[in-house]
Write a structure and sequence with these properties.
The chain is an alpha/beta fold. It has five helices and four strands, in the order H-E-H-E-E-H-H-H-E. Helix 1 packs parallel to helix 5.
Amino acid sequence: MPFWKKKTLVSQTVQDAVVSAIREAEALTTGEIRVFMEPHCQYMDALDRCRELFAQLGMDQTEERNAILIYLAISDKQFALFGDIEIYHRAGGPEFWKRAAQVLRAGLKTGAVEEGMLGCITELGKALAQHFPFNPNIERNELPDEIVFGK
């Protein structure tokens, strides 16, 4: 067993706040939001990494194809957003995604990771609720809400 402790990317308080924001956003929609964090985005562009993780996490398997992944490489100060085909187009294409990214970028730029994450999740949740409102005939919570941590 190594003698060092693995550094936590974000505190438990931030993790709890992010999971709570995801659950609150998803309560009004059939859409799904996930967060993946790792220290570094090695060997590729953040968007390419986000797209790769989206598939690995099975996020392209939701019933309405309306899942969104928020990807953060904390130490590298990189992030990306990736939405499945239906939410990408219905939310307004590139312009919507740029606005949602600006909310996250503003928080990260000032060191306010929690505020940036919560603001971004809120923006994404509003779009999901507008274009994919709650439907009791669709299985609830198709994907876990917890943050996924990479190496």
